[in-house]
Amino acid sequence: MKKKYGFRGVSAPPNSLPEMYGIRPTLHISSGRYLNHPGDARRVKREYIGSKIRDMITNPLPASPVAEAFYPIMSAAAPETDLCPFCGLRLIDREEKARKSCRVCLKESGGTAKEWWDLVCKQEQCNPVPTMDTIWLEEIADDNGRLALLTGRFFPEHFMAFDYLPNKKSQKNGGLMFSAAAFARQRRIWESCREFWYSIEEDIGKLLFSNGLNNSFRLHIKVAGIQRENRGDRATARPSSYHAYELLFDEGISLTAIWTGEDFVTIENLKGFEKRNNLGIKTAAWLREQKGRTVTIRIPGGYGSKAAAWGQADISEIQKNGNRYLPVRHILSEPRTFMCLLPADKALELIRDIKSNYEKKMGQVRGRMPLHLGVIFADRYTPLRAILDAGRRMLNRQCWATFSELTLVPENDSNGSYLLYLRLKEEGVTVCWPISKKVPGSLMIEDGWYSYFPVQKLAEREESRATQEMKGEKGEGKGEEKKDDEDNAAGSSVVTNELVHVKNLVKGDQVYLYPSIFDFEYLDSAGVRFEIAYGTRKRKLSEKAHRPYLLEQIDELDEIWNVLGAGALNRNQIYALRDIISSKRREWGEPYSSVGETFRQFCRDILVTASWNKVKKAGKEKAKYPWESSGEGHEQFFDRWADFAVRGLFEDVVQLHMQIMKKEIDVGGKVNER
After folding, report:
1. Is the bond preceding residue 60 a cis peptide, omega within 30 degrees?
2. Measured between alpha carbons, how far is 568 from 522 in angstroms, rounded to an integer?
3. Rounded CA gap, 60 and 63, in Å?
């Protein structure tokens, strides 16, 4: 070992990988020998390290746990016990039937709570007080008791498949492209994706602070006269340290708190507690009114189990914890995948921030480096395992290629960018992509490395422009060019080696794209997660076959809500329009992909005949109708809104903003003035 790999009396490094569910992964040195330069690898006929890393990126190892590996960890478990609902791998420990958990999961949860509390106590002594995340779903939930799991995924393997660079030495002969398979370049791609998610983590903190959530705090509830119900020999005088309990008051109000060994500390959104129970005053003031009263201590109900009474205690004192927290929990942040939990009413704001950062930092390669975003909305008592499973299902959708046609000649905007108007055939919509002429971060260097599009079919050109087209070298495992037929126009993996720079594109050119998409789902029950299933591009369920949306269509969703949220229609009218559109769609069997003209005209007619209100925008003195404020005519406005209705955007906006996030509608102007 020392002779082969050069270890000179150096002991093996300690295993730094964390233990998970009783099993710790091991580190080992690969048996293969790789070279870090492609020329040297070809000369001595060894494998190039860049090719190995590329294979690891494009074909990652499965991350699903193997259930058989956990079966031996079953001590103190009876054969007739159920499977642990937390991990789904081990049997429930018979000594902790009340907790409905296996021994390992119970130990993990208790140890995590202790580590969290030790960190809270440590940071409470700091000055100024820093902000930290929380581990409790009840604290992450918004004032309506709902939270969101945000998922994001890059597909660097598709970028690497189209990663060609111009060969400047051959530009006179048509500008041959060569494959950029260097390990250093792959590393930059990987690091760029990682840095993107790191920046998003920082933006989450800024977003929550800007919305006034930096005042989130906890309350200490000191109790006296603790009495446990008679449990025979197992009766104890105090609750189990670092376990969560419910404090049940006489009015039927319950408050979730953790026992630290000295007192109870609240672990739920206190503003939501006030709203849910109609207190009318702050939680701290209400609890101080409860001094001297007796409360019931209950063990919270688990998956499939009811809450069980533990005992009683008298409230003696209420104190405020000096440590603030952010209602967010980062779950996963690696170059390919991102997952975090945050309040449901802040999810769309974060989606907009991610979209803005993506267009700014990766706008040059957005067609080759797609981004898939998804949001799982759920109530605070929804099992976490169900939420994470729904998130994994949303992440596991394939990235399918499509080809689009340029509808206009690339225009120049005032910001020094090319404006590409692309008509995506399979989506049936036109998107506008600004592609910067210069390298991001520089006003002097023209981008001649990234702004290339894989070609499916080129339109006719003048002879003077034909020589400017950039064609790639065949070989290096790239395969042959695709045929110009619709059967090969799209797929999960496209093979082509013909790329054209954005400045050489003309109207009618057809290029391959991996579109970025956005999807969402609300888990009103844990079983809804099984509806998250995708075909080639869209959902398999017919009622949700119009999703996922293109990432660019988030602007259309925002546009619809800006009109509805301003009070242009009353709440009852909005729900009535939503219901009649969805019911007629089912009755007439109208799909989302190809809607008949009769159904389109029906949607337009009911929108025109609705009682629209005048609304007053900020900074404007006079209230106007929406079609007057937008600068459109009456006809153009309702043509566009009829399109929103038939494509399902109107229905989804109502569900997102009014049903899931429970947003209020502003008061409009005069009604029925026309």
Report:
1. no
2. 26
3. 9
* Token pair for 157: 């393997």
Note the Cα 179 to chain centre separation in Å: 32
- Asked whether residue 204 carries a pLDDT value surpassing 50, the answer given is yes
Specify the pairing of strand 177-179 against strand 164-166.
Answer: antiparallel
177 confidence band (pLDDT: 50, 70, 90): low
Can you list the positions of beta strands (E) in 345-414? 371-379, 402-406, 411-412
User: What b/e readout covers 74-87, taking b as 16+ CB neighbours within 10 angstroms?
Assistant: beebeeebeebbbb
pTM of the predicted protein model: 0.84
According to DSSP, the β-strands at 254-259 and 264-266 are: antiparallel
Helix (H, G, I), strand (E, B) or coil at 23: strand
**Comparing 54-58, 122-126, 469-473, which segment has the lowest mean pLDDT?**
469-473
The rounded distance, in Å, linking the Cα atoms of 563 and 638 is 13
Residues linked to residue 215 through DSSP beta bridges, in sequence order: none
CA gap 153, 398 in Å, rounded:
11
Single-letter residue type at 171: Q
Q: Is 626 exposed, middle or buried (0-12, 13-18, 19+ CB in 10 A)?
A: buried
Cβ count near 300 (within 10 Å): 17
Give strand pairing partners of 224: 314
Q: Residue 438: helix, strand or coil by DSSP? A: strand
Tokens of residue 11, six digits: 């002991």
**Spatial contact of 34 and 48, defined as CB atoms under 8 Å apart:** yes
Q: How far apart are CA 60 and CA 669, in angstroms?
A: 57
In terms of Cα–Cα distance, which of 387, 307, 354, 493 is closest to 140? 387
Q: How many CB atoms lie within 10 A of CB 552?
A: 22
Residues 6+ apart with CB under 8 A from 110: 240, 242, 243
Nearest CA to 551 out of 295, 332, 369 is that of 369
Give 518's Cβ-side CA count (13 Å radius).
20
Beta strands in 390-479 (DSSP E): 402-406, 411-412, 417-424, 429-436, 452-457
The token pair at 613 is: 């209100």
What single-letter amino acid sits at 254?
S
